[in-house]
């Protein structure tokens, strides 16, 4: 994923069976941070595989063998569509003195790296997408990958508190605010 940021490709062609992680997982990860067009090129002809790839965010699906002409036309079509759709998602989010790098999954307060867990990263990522917006507990639960029906208020408060303490210990602001009976926001 780090290469994706430095090389900024115009288009990605993936094979489902590229190894570990497989092309489907790579597609999902790329889609979290980028809108770059993705064409899945594979020997798998099953409709379920095609549906899974498209659901993961692939823009097109081709089965091998495919002629150079057809592949070239599909690539040109995706590049043309990309130009008309506009810009990429940002890979760096900034709010106050906080910087969140979506490619390296690092949180910084100023220049100081703040060690955070996957859950804390997902939590702060949601809040930094729209600073000052109040996100409900259900939205936060969904963002951190926990079903809202199985999440207690105490669990979310604990995650928020630990993240707030890590930011404060790194010299940052009291950035995460709990909104009583609703959820959280980044201030």
Automatic annotation (TrEMBL):
Record bears the keyword Transcription: yes
Entry keyword annotation includes Disulfide bond: no
Response regulatory domain: residues covered: 1-79
One Gene Ontology cellular component annotation held by this UniProt entry: protein-DNA complex
GO BP annotations, alphabetical order: regulation of DNA-templated transcription
Segments forming domain OmpR/PhoB-type: 90-187
Keywords: DNA-binding, Phosphoprotein, Transcription, Transcription regulation, Two-component regulatory system
GO molecular function: phosphorelay response regulator activity; transcription cis-regulatory region binding
PANTHER family in alphabetical order: REGULATOR OF RPOS, TWO-COMPONENT RESPONSE REGULATOR ORR33
Protein name as annotated: Unannotated protein
Organism this protein belongs to: freshwater metagenome
């Amino acid at each position: 994923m780090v290469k994706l940021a430095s090389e900024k490709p115009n288009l990605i062609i993936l094979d489902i069976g590229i190894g570990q992680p497989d092309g489907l997982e790579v597609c999902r990860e790329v889609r979290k941070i980028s809108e770059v067009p993705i064409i899945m090129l594979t020997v798998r002809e099953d409709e379920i595989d095609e549906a899974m790839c498209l659901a993961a965010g692939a823009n097109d699906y081709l089965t091998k063998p495919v002629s150079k002409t057809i592949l070239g036309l599909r690539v040109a079509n995706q590049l043309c569509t990309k130009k008309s759709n506009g810009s990429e998602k940002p890979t760096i989010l900034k709010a106050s003195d906080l910087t969140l790098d979506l490619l390296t999954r690092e949180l910084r307060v100023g220049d100081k790296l703040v060690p955070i867990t996957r859950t804390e990263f997902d939590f702060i990522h949601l809040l930094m997408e729209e600073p000052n917006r109040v996100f409900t507990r259900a939205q936060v639960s969904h963002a951190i990958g926990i079903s809202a029906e199985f999440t207690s208020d105490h669990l979310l408060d604990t995650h928020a508190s630990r993240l707030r303490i890590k930011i404060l210990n790194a010299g940052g602001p009291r950035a995460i605010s709990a909104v009583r009976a609703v959820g959280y926001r980044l201030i």
